[in-house]
């Protein structure tokens, strides 16, 4: 399995990179390449030009901007995994990162690349959607920001304008105290693609009442989705098993679940319900511990 | 495309098509055949090398992308021809290999693990090699090999400190 022939350019600036993309319809950006290179090897992708953004200054790094933490698109997943800032400010992302591929792919794979490629099974887009984050892009005609809940439009596709480069990924920060998270995934083996992944972040007051809740589902759908109705319904409750089950059931029943040779839609729906409940329960328990 | 790779501490000028993976450049151009070709899409781990000291899939990187990075292959794990490094020797001692196809990837992965965690738990070892497929051993002896190597490396370092 070898990729089809292509040209390769390693621009030094974002301006140079966007011009290359604007001038070549079949050009693709390569960051870490951990999603794109296998697709090229299988010839599911056949770009005629690869624009390598790894050497552009200012596209890598993690910064605390108060209400959100921003990642330069080229920030390696392993760098995020080791970051104390991520652990303290974005506990849900910290919980999800060990599930992303495996160590060797996280050493190369980037935060921006995972989001831009929009693999339905990818964990980073799921966390971004669950926390209602956003991305920033730049093209020859300008720049913009897109909310994560509007970004993903299908498997491996986003609403980013043609010729745009994703430059930044922004994850909202919840100010404590009383925050807890949960992340669960079902797959054929450790580090394999998720059949279903669930992410939950909750905030409890001192009485154990949920004041803020966000739950998202990935893997089973064409793209990750936040469950706005269940999230809202759980606010004000004590997140008992019964609260969780009744909030989740109708919204999970209404999801358009994918089916394939590995897992049927019926299986995925059942697992989505179970793992969403488990993620919420973990989040609740952790949040209770945070108040002690 | 003309590039300079840094492989096992040596600068290696190459002229390769952009579509040539680092794995194929190492094997076909530089004749470093210790990195093995398996699935060629990042799943099996047979092609694992170290890039700037960290394990990575050489089949998921085009050689042109690796310019400027320090690439380490299994060939650099022993002091000299006919010798074995501590981890390699531990794999022999515990029968941590049968056909040997996954072994270079396992050893380089173990090398990075033991550098960062000299006393890994069994769970940490299993997690570290979870991206490397072995179809012979059932993994038990590989985990034992890494445990033995960890023990020997700790001992060797203790000697050195005294």
Summed up:
Chain A has 12 helices and 14 strands. Chain A has helices at residues 14-23, 36-41, 77-82, 84-89, 91-96, 103-108, 111-117, 123-130, 148-151, 228-234, 241-253, 265-291, and strands at 7-9, 27-30, 49-52, 62-64, 68-72, 134-139, 142-147, 152-154, 157-158, 165-172, 179-187, 194-204, 210-218, 225-226.
Describe this structure in words.
The complex is a heterodimer of chains A (292) and B (162). By secondary structure, chain A is an alpha+beta fold. Chain A has three domains: 7-52, Uridine Diphospho-n-acetylenolpyruvylglucosamine Reductase, domain 2 (2-Layer Sandwich); 62-172, Uridine Diphospho-n-acetylenolpyruvylglucosamine Reductase, domain 3 (2-Layer Sandwich); 180-291, CO dehydrogenase flavoprotein, C-terminal domain (Enolase-like, domain 1), CATH 3.30.390. Chain A has twelve helices and 14 strands. The model of chain A has no long low-confidence stretch (mean pLDDT 96). Chain B contains five helices and five strands, in the order E-E-H-E-E-E-H-H-H-H. Chain B starts with a strand and ends with a helix. Chain B folds into two domains: 2-76, Roll (Ubiquitin-like (UB roll)), CATH 3.10.20; 86-161, Orthogonal Bundle (DNA polymerase, domain 1). Chain B has helices spanning 22-29, 86-93, 103-116, 122-128, 140-161, and strands spanning 2-7, 10-15, 48-51, 54-57, 70-72. The longest helix of chain B has 22 residues, at 140-161. Chain B is globular. Chain B is α+β, with helices and mostly antiparallel strands. Chain B is 36% helix and 14% strand. Chains A and B meet through helix 2 and helix 6 of A and strand 4 of B.
What are the SSEs and their pairings?
The complex is a heterodimer of chains A (292) and B (162).
Chain A: E1 7-9, H1 14-23, E2 27-30, H2 36-41, E3 49-52, E4 62-64, E5 68-72, H3 77-82, H4 84-89, H5 91-96, H6 103-108, H7 111-117, H8 123-130, E6 134-139, E7 142-147, H9 148-151, E8 152-154, E9 157-158, E10 165-172, E11 179-187, E12 194-204, E13 210-218, E14 225-226, H10 228-234, H11 241-253, H12 265-291
Parallel strand pairs in A: 1-3, 2-3
Antiparallel strand pairs in A: 4-5, 5-10, 6-7, 6-10, 8-9, 11-12, 12-13, 13-14
Helix pairs in contact in A: 10-11, 11-12
Chain B: E1 2-7, E2 10-15, H1 22-29, E3 48-51, E4 54-57, E5 70-72, H2 86-93, H3 103-116, H4 122-128, H5 140-161
Parallel strand pairs in B: 1-5
Antiparallel strand pairs in B: 1-2, 3-4, 3-5
């Amino acid at each position: 399995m070898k990729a089809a022939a292509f040209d390769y350019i390693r621009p030094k600036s974002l301006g140079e990179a966007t011009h290359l993309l604007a001038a070549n319809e079949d050009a693709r950006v390569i960051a870490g390449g951990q999603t794109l290179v296998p697709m090229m090897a299988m010839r599911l992708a056949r770009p005629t030009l690869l624009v390598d953004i790894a050497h552009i200054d200012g596209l890598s790094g993690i910064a605390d901007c108060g209400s959100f933490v921003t990642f330069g698109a080229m920030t390696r997943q392993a760098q995020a995994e080791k970051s104390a800032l991520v652990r303290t400010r974005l506990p849900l992302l910290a919980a999800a990162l060990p599930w992303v591929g495996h160590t060797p792919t996280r050493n190369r794979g980037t935060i921006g690349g995972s989001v831009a490629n929009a693999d339905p099974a990818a964990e980073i887009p799921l966390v971004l959607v669950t926390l209602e984050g956003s991305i920033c892009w730049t093209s020859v005609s300008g720049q913009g920001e897109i909310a994560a809940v509007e970004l993903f439009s299908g498997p491996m596709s986003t609403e980013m304008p043609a010729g745009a480069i994703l430059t930044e990924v922004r994850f909202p920060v919840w100010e404590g105290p009383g925050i807890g998270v949960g992340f669960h995934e079902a797959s054929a083996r450790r580090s394999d693609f998720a059949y279903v992944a669930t992410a939950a972040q909750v905030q409890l007051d001192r009485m154990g009442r949920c004041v803020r809740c966000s739950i998202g589902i990935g893997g089973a759908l064409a793209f990750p989705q936040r469950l706005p109705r269940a999230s809202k319904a759980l606010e004000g409750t004590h997140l008992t098993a019964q609260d969780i089950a009744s909030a989740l059931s109708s919204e999970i029943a209404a999801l358009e679940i994918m089916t394939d040779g590995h897992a049927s839609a019926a299986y995925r729906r059942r697992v989505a319900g179970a793992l969403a409940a488990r993620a919420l329960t973990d989040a609740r328990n952790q949040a209770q511990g945070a108040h002690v | 495309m003309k590039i300079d790779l840094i492989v096992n501490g040596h600068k290696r000028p190459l002229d390769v098509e952009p579509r040539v993976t680092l794995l194929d450049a190492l094997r076909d151009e530089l004749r470093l055949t210790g990195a093995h070709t398996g699935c060629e899409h990042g799943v099996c781990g047979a092609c694992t090398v170290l890039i700037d000291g960290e394990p990575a899939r050489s089949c998921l990187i085009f050689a042109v992308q690796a310019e400027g990075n320090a690439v380490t292959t299994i060939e650099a794990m022993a002091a000299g021809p006919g010798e074995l490094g501590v981890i390699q020797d531990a794999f022999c001692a515990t029968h941590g290999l049968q056909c040997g196809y996954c072994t270079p990837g396992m050893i380089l992965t173990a090398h990075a693990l033991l550098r960062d965690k000299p006393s890994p738990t069994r769970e940490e070892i299993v997690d570290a090699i979870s991206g490397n497929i072995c179809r012979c051993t059932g993994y038990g002896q590989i985990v034992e090999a890494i445990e033995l190597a960890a023990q020997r490396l700790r001992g060797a370092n203790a000697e050195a400190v005294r």
